[in-house]
Design brief:
Elements (H helix, E strand, L loop, with lengths): L14 E2 L13 E3 L17 E5 L2 E2 L10 E4 L2 E4 L9 E5 L22 E3 L2 E10 L2 E6 L2 E7 L2 E4 L17 E3 L5 E5 L4 E5 L11 E5 L6 E6 L4 E5 L2 E7 L2 E4 L16 E3 L5 E5 L4 E4 L5 E5 L2 E6 L5 E5 L2 E7 L2 E4 L7 E6 L9 E6 L4 E6 L6 E7 L4 E5 L2 E7 L2 E4 L7 E2 L10 E5 L6 E6 L9 E7 L4 E5 L2 E7 L2 E4 L16 E3 L5 E5 L4 E5 L5 E5 L2 E6 L5 E3 L22 E4 L13 E6 L4 E5 L5 E3 L7
Antiparallel strand pairs: 1-7, 2-6, 3-4, 3-7, 5-6, 8-9, 9-10, 10-11, 11-12, 13-14, 14-15, 16-17, 17-18, 18-19, 19-20, 21-22, 22-23, 24-25, 25-26, 26-27, 27-28, 29-30, 30-31, 31-32, 32-33, 33-34, 34-35, 36-37, 37-38, 38-39, 39-40, 40-41, 41-42, 43-44, 44-45, 46-47, 47-48, 49-50, 50-51, 51-52
């Protein structure tokens, strides 16, 4: 008879039936068929699957029971009772584990499935109920399948890492359009067929692998929420969207006098007025700060304050400026000529906490006194940090004088003579001069004062600072803790005073009085500029961003929105375009400047 199963295998796949000859008595015909003391599982389906020998004679398997032997229940039933003393031998063929064609498996049970494997009789298949088949592993149901499909009862559905489209993937759809898999590095839900990939639910929530940190929420008839580090940053609303934090955009275009308004009552305005750039605090002060640390405070109708490490070091006043030291700290102004690249370029004005005011130089690598003024006391002048001149109650005191108010060189190679000279070649001029060599000839000027006129400070006989009727003129760079100027008092930079900075009691101004650009730079590289016509532009095309993914502009107010990637290409069809989006009364329009075509957006009213 044909059977379903494997061909005959190794000898150890046969089963030896327990010897029943001790029960032969010449009258008993039915004996329990056991292997190793219990009925084998599965039990042979027919006598043809068993070989029985009694007293050395092979018995005929007869399902009718008329001759030889038959299997009834779990017993061997002989047609004639074996005689006492006859030997017995029996085996179950290996093929007895498999279903004969046309036969049926027994239902089996959870602990004894009907289809099993040698050495693992509690693992296999059994009939769970009508139309339902269960798969059992070590007497535990793992899965079952019925007319509804496959149900995982215990454990997981485990697939290995997918190395290609045809292995270790869950595929859904007639053509396997929807696939779920892991490739060893990433996990995928991939829709590669026709139609859309739709996620449906009253609320759809995307979280991290622990379910404790939100990525996004999609609420039925409600908001779409986006999160950063479990903190909600973006939320749609009936009238638009709400951004918590910063909003980054690539570019922000606004016309003259079009304002960025901040505050519940438009308390802070930022705009370009056509010829000036304005930060307007309206009725409130303007603060530049980093967190709680102040950098600059501009008070309405009052002073401007500048801070260092959250301590005020500079403020304007009605008739000038005040440079402040912190509690128990000196107040200092430093001047660095020629970019401060040499020690001799550096000078300092210092008011210290013990009532002294000093002019210091850095020529030797550390600050040394040049002039010291003591409150309600003397004034001292120094040479190489050594006192050479001092006032006292009844006059002045000079040291090492060989000429009127002369400090001679000390004979060393770098020593120079210094001297105060009045009426040096012209009436009304008073100078502090020094020699150019190891002599007492005062042929170079350090300070020059003109009666009823300017005072000049020199570096290497070249004027670096000069007072004028309107203020001071500085040649070279300036380093200081702060500068205080009154309304309409202007800081002018450039040979033609091209760059000007000032306050006119109502606004603060930084700009040019000529047809030149105002350039902004960082790290010694130019980044942005305002050209002579007032446009805010990047130095190079397609290089810099306005905002970033974590530092975003909150709102963008503009008239027409112009978009162009000319000189580049998009990521879809590798072309470039030049478009303008314009607003209509009830529509949005798109103009293609390359083709001249005009389009209207299809808008759906939602509220």
């Amino acid at each position: 008879m044909p059977y379903i199963g494997n061909t005959i295998r190794a000898a150890d796949d046969y089963r030896l039936i327990d010897d029943i000859s001790s029960s032969f008595n010449g009258s008993t015909t039915s004996f329990a068929l056991q292997v190793a003391g219990s009925a084998p599982i599965p039990f042979p389906k027919s006598p043809q699957q068993v070989l029985i020998s009694v007293n050395g004679v092979i018995q005929e398997p007869d399902p009718t029971g008329a001759s030889g032997f038959n299997l009834v229940g779990t017993n061997i039933v002989f047609s004639s009772a074996p005689t006492n003393g006859h030997a017995f031998f029996g085996i179950i063929y290996a093929t007895a584990d498999y279903l004969n064609a046309g036969g049926n498996f027994p239902s089996g049970s959870l602990g004894a499935p009907s289809f099993t494997f040698i050495g693992d009789e509690n693992t296999g298949l059994y009939r769970k109920s009508g139309g339902s088949v269960g798969f059992v592993s070590d007497a535990t149901e793992i899965a079952n399948f019925d007319s509804n499909g496959i149900t995982i009862s215990s454990g997981n559905l485990i697939l290995g890492d997918s190395s290609g489209a045809n292995d270790d993937r869950i595929k859904l759809g007639a053509s396997g359009d929807l696939e779920i898999y892991h490739d060893g590095s990433h996990s995928y839900i991939q829709d590669s067929g026709t139609g859309e990939l739709r996620l449906r639910g009253t609320t759809i929530r995307l979280t991290d692998h622990n379910g404790t940190e939100n990525f996004a929420n999609f609420v039925d008839n409600g908001a779409v929420e986006l999160y950063y580090d479990n903190s909600k940053k973006f939320e749609t609303a009936s009238n638009g969207a709400i951004v918590t934090g910063s909003l980054g955009v690539d570019e922000l275009y606004m016309g003259d006098n079009e304002q960025i308004k901040i505050g519940a009552e438009d308390d802070f305005l930022i705009y370009h007025g056509g010829s000036e750039n304005v930060l307007d605090g309206v009725l409130h002060k303007i603060e530049l700060r980093h967190g709680n640390e102040k950098h600059l405070v501009a008070n309405p109708d009052g002073k401007v304050e500048i801070y260092y490490d959250n301590t005020k070091t500079f403020e304007t006043k009605t008739n000038g400026i005040i440079v402040l030291g912190g509690e128990n700290q000196n107040s200092e102004i430093e001047f660095h000529a020629d970019e401060g690249d040499d020690n001799a370029d550096k000078w300092r004005l210092k008011a210290d906490t013990n009532g002294q005011f000093e002019i210091n130089n850095f020529a030797s690598g550390s600050y040394e006194r040049s002039i010291e003024c003591n409150a309600n006391g003397n004034v001292e002048l120094y040479f190489n940090n050594s006192l050479k001149f001092a006032t006292f109650t009844s006059g002045v005191q000079l040291n090492s004088v060989t000429n009127t108010l002369l400090w001679p060189f000390d004979g060393s190679t770098n020593s120079r003579s210094w001297g105060w000279r009045g009426e040096n070649g012209s009436y009304g001029i008073f100078e502090l001069d020094h020699s150019d060599g190891n002599d007492t000839t005062l042929d170079k000027t350090s300070i020059r004062a003109v009666a009823n006129g300017q005072v000049m400070l020199y570096h290497n006989d070249v004027v670096k600072l000069e007072t004028t009727a309107n203020g001071i003129t500085i040649t070279g760079g300036v380093t200081c803790d702060g500068i205080t100027l009154g309304d309409n008092e202007i800081i002018q930079l450039g040979n033609s005073s091209d760059l000007r900075i000032y306050h006119d009691s109502g606004a603060n101004y930084v700009g040019t009085f000529t047809a030149q650009s105002l350039v902004f730079f960082t790290n010694n590289n130019s980044r942005w500029f305002i050209d002579a016509t007032g446009h805010f532009l990047p130095i190079t095309d397609n290089t810099f961003d306005l905002g970033s993914p974590s530092k975003r502009v909150r709102n963008l107010y503009t008239t027409d929105l112009k978009l162009s990637n000319e000189g580049s290409q998009n990521d879809v069809d590798s072309t470039w375009g030049n478009y303008t989006i314009q607003e209509g009364h009830e529509d949005l329009f798109l103009i293609n400047h390359r083709t001249g075509k005009k389009f209207k957006f299809n808008l759906t009213e939602v509220a």
